[in-house]
Amino acid sequence: MSLLVLGGTAEARALATALARAGIEAVVSLAGVTRAPAAMDLPVRIGGFGGDAGFGDYLAVQEITGVIDATHPFADVMSERAARICGARGMDYLRLERAAWAAGSGDLWHDVAGFGDLAALIPKSARVFLATGRQSLPLLGELAVGRHLYLRQIEPAKVDALDGVEIVLGRGPFSIEDEVALLRKLRVDWLVVKNAGGAGGRAKLEAARMLGLPVALIERPVAVDGAMVRDVEAALDWAVLRMRGRE
Ligand code: NAP
């Protein structure tokens, strides 16, 4: 009898700490995308499950009684699968997803549905900084034509580089001062971010506002069916109720 926390976010790490402190038996699952993941206060399993069947087998073999899906707001494959399979099995499922960012005064934000909309929005010859992660590289396509793109990644690319795309290595959290300095140094005209939400990634948006830079914000995928909370405390309350109820 154990909870499974689907991780890959700061919230999942904080939830692991909170669950461990509360004495709730749980395991954290990471996809294995970063080579040196941050330490966790709960047991961790690493790597994909091997699709729907592998995930279903894992839940059964490990006698998982409930899933807290604390994956990144853009990890839609894993979230959709977890919600669907838990729903079909009558298992407890909770989505922990931080609130999206909302524009304030002085922000020059443009919402776009996906990477495919960027080329129509961002003028040719612009110098564009993408804080959208390693998976964006294959999605840049037409945007890379006639523009200079900087793509920030935590680790060196595992896929072939694309003409017109320069990789900038960096691991957050970044301060506003650091972000201002970097955007200035690279003489960036446009910033592209996923609307991930949360405090950790906010500095680049503050920096863009200070520099008067326009920002293209990629909207989140459609939310999955199922209960959702926005913060770690609410997820902990949910877990305590579920697990104590089974004792
Ligand atoms: P995704 O598109 O939803 O999932 C792709 C595949 O990765 C899944 O089919 C699954 O592999 C595996 N996977 C994803 N999350 C997993 C987890 N917590 N434990 C075990 N396997 C997992 O996810 P993604 O966007 O590639 O993100 C991968 C991981 O990085 C997630 O854990 C996410 O929280 C984190 N992350 C993502 C972003 C982002 O912008 N997408 C940003 C920061 C962190 P199988 O099919 O083999 O089971």
Molecular structure report:
The protein has a six-stranded parallel sheet with strand order 3-2-1-4-5-12, with helices on both faces. Strands 6-11-10-7-8-9 form a six-stranded parallel sheet, with helices on one face. Helix 1 crosses helix 7 and helix 5 packs across helix 6. The radius of gyration is 19 Å and the shape is elongated. It contains seven helices and twelve strands. The termini are close together. The mean pLDDT is 94. With 247 residues, it is of the alpha/beta class. Strand 10, helix 6 and strand 11 form a beta-alpha-beta unit.
Provide the residue-averaged pLDDT: 94
Helix content: 25-40%
Hetero compounds: NADP nicotinamide-adenine-dinucleotide phosphate
Contiguous low-pLDDT stretches (5 residues minimum) are: none
Total E-strand runs: 12
Structural class call reads: alpha/beta
| Series of H and E elements | EHEEHEHEEHEEEHEHEEH
User: What's the overall geometry?
Assistant: elongated
Rounded Rg: 19 Å
List its salient traits.
247 residues; alpha/beta; six-stranded parallel β-sheet; 30% helix; 23% strand; elongated; binds NADP nicotinamide-adenine-dinucleotide phosphate
Secondary-structure blueprint of this entry?
Elements: E1 2-6, H1 10-21, E2 26-30, E3 44-46, H2 51-61, E4 64-69, H3 76-89, E5 92-96, E6 108-112, H4 118-121, E7 127-130, E8 148-153, E9 165-169, H5 176-185, E10 190-194, H6 203-211, E11 214-218, E12 227-229, H7 232-245
Helix pairs in contact: 1-7, 5-6
This protein binds NADP nicotinamide-adenine-dinucleotide phosphate.
